[in-house]
Input
Amino acid sequence: MDLFGHLLLAVLMQVLVVRLCRNWVAGAAVATAWALSREITQAEYRWIERFGDGLRANMPWWGGVDIRVWQTPDPWLDWLLPTLLAGTIAFVASRRRRLSSVAEEGR
Output
């Protein structure tokens, strides 16, 4: 999946949670959790290939967060950018909601 796919899937998850819970921050949390957990899982596979002789049993519990398997920008961008996008959407949507409720109170 390319970066655009990660961004699109994060937004779709966020919108789904918003439709179910009516909370943009909860949607951002779900999208962030998905993006980060996916990249940690990918890092675990890199650790197993590089240090674990191809066996998951050889990987320590911290293998997915070992900085040695996070040496390229790709995995960082694949969770940071969806997180920033979902957070920005949540911030803007929450702010718009607050501003519209304040405007209605002023009527």
Remarks:
- The CA atoms of residues 73 and 80 lie 10 Å apart.
